[in-house]
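User: what does the whole thing look like in 3D?
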Amino acid sequence: MSKTKFILGLFDDPDAMMDGIHKLQQNSVPIYDVYTPMPIHGIEAKLGIKDSRLGYAAFLFGCTGGTVAFSMLYYMLVHDWPMNIGGKPSFAIPDFVPITFEWTVLFTAFGMVATFFYATHLFPGRAPRVMDLRATDDRFVIAIDAKGNTPHADITNILKEAGAVEVKHNERKYVSYE
Amino acid sequence: MSSHSESIIREPLITGENITYSQITNDVLRPVENKPTKAWWIGFTVSSIFAMLWVFAVSWTFWYGIGAWGLNKTVGWAWDITGFVWWVGIGHAGTLISAVLLLFRQNWRNSINRSAEAMTIFAVICAASYIVAHMGRPWMAVYSLPLPNQYTLWVNFNSPLIWDVFAISTYFSVSLVFWYTGLLPDIASIRDRATGIKRRIYSICSFGWAGSVKTWQRFETVSLILAGISTPLVLSVHTIVSMDFATSLEPGWHTTIFPPYFVAGAIFSGFAMVQTLLLVARKVLGLENYITMFHIESMNKIIILTGSIVGVAYLTEFFIAWYSGVEYEQYAFINRATGPYWWAYWSMMSCNVISPQLFWVKKWRTSIPFSWVLSIVVNIGMWFERFVIIVTSLHRDYIPSSWAMFQPTWVEVSIFIGSIGLFFTLFLLFIRVLPSVAMAEVKLLLKGASEQAKLEKIKHGHEDKSQVEFYKEALEKFDSVDLAKYGKI
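Assistant: Here's the predicted 3D structure for the full assembly of 667 residues, as structure tokens:
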């Protein structure tokens, strides 16, 4: 049995890579993942990846922020220590608007980005799981799990045909571990 | 789509021949991966000397209190708040470029957003330092937060000064998050090309970015939503800064025009500062192919627009002072133009209202030296604007017996000059250690919006003849395009 763990098709052009994905799908070769130096529009639909739900998370964080800010202002200015400022009402809603707005934005931004980092497993010091070092530079990489996907020569040919500049048979999954 | 083909009547966003994806990485990372140049060392030395002056003058203020400044009983706000508002205003361009222009799908933002956002962050740091410094006793800053304290009092949330605390801190932290999230893929590019200790550091900073499909999809969602919420945020920040003045009863401050007028002024000065920095940076870092004449001209057009809005606001203030029939308001404005600070007023008028109008001349707005000088003139003008608003309103208000003049001391002047040094020091460090252009976003433009892609299209010969002529004419202003190769087509 071959020691190859992953087959990587390296493209120097995003359109050629999309063509490669198309050809692999036609031949029913499952794709493990695709690594690119820039976002490729339309690739999610091609690979059948569901829409991101981060928008919903952002909305909920925003609602939380607005509610927290407004409740805090209400508690401090109306409930806990109402002050008589020239006989004006303590519950002065227009004055609450700026801070309520700022915290809505603050909670949305931090909550959403934290959710993004959590869901994508991004945090400082995480060992980068990189299959090819040039995938963050100028190579568009299609990764295929070699196990069960045989014969490897056929996959290599499909990738080459689609215009891959290089096809790698890696025995290790990630090259970034030292 | 990456292969999205763009009409040739749109000017190219990337110029140069044989630009490849790796070429973009190499060009952008050159200052990061190599030893600093002589120009960088000179710039860094000079600006860090001024930054030291800032440290010295701020320490002096903390030691002796704000009595070391030229403030008096009548003029209680002067260079400190002028400097604060000036820096916050400069900090507006970054988020405007990265958020508002993203929502409007202005692709030319892609190559300038990174450095403009960095500039925003450094400018807001300078602004915040003024606020803390002007408290005199910086540890008192904690009382601006709604924390339980021994007085058992909450902060006064009815005060715009407290709104400002929330606005500036939110703006700073959201801009920082926006900037850093955008940096992750580019830090990963540096990581994967580096070795040894450098690789380890960038690896930590890259958060383990690998660029898979799902990561990019989420990244784009996050960018879009951050842009959507940063757009009202950036408008709210200077609105609230303007309310520091507008909600007071001081003649010349108590006007409803302040929020839009301040926001326009902020964008105006922000773009001027972007221009000041990028015109130098593109030359020194060799980024002429990515920050092209089209970018410079577009920014100059925004300077004309916002400069004109500011001009209209100045005239409207005068009209309303007359129309209101309030003699104190009328006197405040007559005093601005003809009183003892007339020179500040007319410096402001000529730098902010007259000088940007020169950009209507195409030859001037596409001239690099002219744009650079004018961008500095605009920033001087915007400093005077804040000085005029603050000092001329304060030095003569309702009671003539307390009228006074204001003279700054060396401490205030040093803090101001020093803060510029601090800003440039931070900016120079930034271009040394982080990519000054968002590589991933520029790579998106290569196949559609680059000059080479458009040249290829013209060579195929299917383009409309008049469109080709139009395109060639548009290219004449570019300093990074060799027109000779278009001669034979």
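In plain terms: Chain B has a mean pLDDT of 90. Chain B has two domains: 1-19+451-489, 21-146+154-449.
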